Amino acid sequence: MSLIRLKYVFQEQDEAEEFYNKIYNKAKVKKIHVQLTSENSYVIQFEMSQNQLHRFWKDIVQALIHVFIFYRLPEIAKSILAKHYYYADKHEMDHIIPILQSIMKNPKHYGNQFEVQTTYTFYQMFERDVKKESVLNFNEYMSQHQEEYMSNLIDVTGYAIDEWKREEDYQEFIHSLRNFIKNKEPKMDTLLLMYDKELLFFKPNGRRVTYSEIKTIQHDERVHFIDVLSHDFPMSLIAAIAPREVVIYTNHISDPKIITLQNLFQEKAIIRPIDTFPFVGKKA
Predict the structure, then answer these.
(1) CB pairs under 8 A, 24+ apart, for 97-105?
(2) Better-predicted residue by pLDDT, 133 or 225
(3) Which residues, 6+ apart, have CB-to-CB distance to 48 below 8 Å?
(4) Which one of 45, 160, 175, 235 is most buried, counting C-beta atoms within 10 A?
(5) Which residues, in sequence order, are bridge partners of residue 246?
(6) Would the pLDDT of 220 be above 70?
(7) Distance CA 66, CA 143 (A)
(8) pLDDT tens digit string along 227-264?
(9) Could you tell me the maximum CA-CA distance found in the chain, to the nearest angstrom?
(10) Can you list the alpha helix ranges (DSSP code H) found in 84-137?
(11) Which of 45-59, 100-114, 134-148 has the highest mean pLDDT?
């Protein structure tokens, strides 16, 4: 049985090692011979059967894209930001580029907007081009194809800018709300929250905050303008209570509502498992 040989050549040691480390364990599991050598350049070679290659192409492509995103994309992005979006501030670029890298690495986490979809187009083009080469010099490959990928990268960079602006607006909102709560007289020193499918409010003694109490607090404080996050997240009520401390009983620690509360109250937000709530069954 004849073996297929593939060779990937890198001029930069960090790029070569990143590619090698990304691919080595996958190659080992699939019993593919892989070797890293270095003289004037860094060379990763593979030997495999046609059947192995069919199952291994995806791993090779993903490893090369990984190297591109983390080592080549930052400099390309700086050029795009300056030339196409007129950014010159290094501080702003340093915030936008990691967001762009995250979108390129995990586009499915960012929805179905057109600009995000162009990431998949980039992936398809990259895979198509890589599969044409049995010997691929990464520097030469990028020189040949970078311009071809540019329109997709420009679109995704625009979306990264929008994401950064949304994050800036969010942080400004949290900062303003934190100051609002800090300067208010608290209606409770400690607010207990239980969150599973809905957010429930409890007093320090474990009694449920009733609907009529909620309406009274919100009416008296007139902070309805704060509810900008979602209809099922009554931030205005939390702001109106202005607790010194929030204890949240939940198993959903990565839920955006919980993350927002942690960002808002910082070290004064205490997260505990929902099954440790000490007042189960207590009436309002």
Answers:
(1) 97/73, 97/160, 99/160, 99/163, 99/164, 99/167, 100/73, 100/156, 100/157, 100/160, 101/69, 101/70, 101/73, 101/74, 103/156, 103/159, 103/160, 103/163, 104/65, 104/69, 104/73, 104/156, 105/66, 105/69
(2) 133
(3) 3, 4, 6, 30, 32, 33, 56
(4) 160
(5) 191, 269
(6) no
(7) 17
(8) 544 445 677 788 888 899 999 999 999 888 898 899 88
(9) 82
(10) 90-105, 114-130
(11) 134-148
Residue type, 39: E
Beta strands in the chain (DSSP E): 4-10, 33-38, 42-48, 135-137, 190-195, 199-202, 245-250, 269-272
2 DSSP assignment: P
The residue length of the chain stands at: 284
Question: 33-38 and 42-48 as β-strands: parallel, antiparallel, unpaired?
Answer: antiparallel
**pTM: predicted TM-score of the whole model, two decimal places:** 0.77
- Per 3-state DSSP, the chain is made up of helix, strand and coil in percentages (nearest 5) of 60, 15, 25
pLDDT at 76 over 60: yes
Amino acid in the structure at residue 36: L
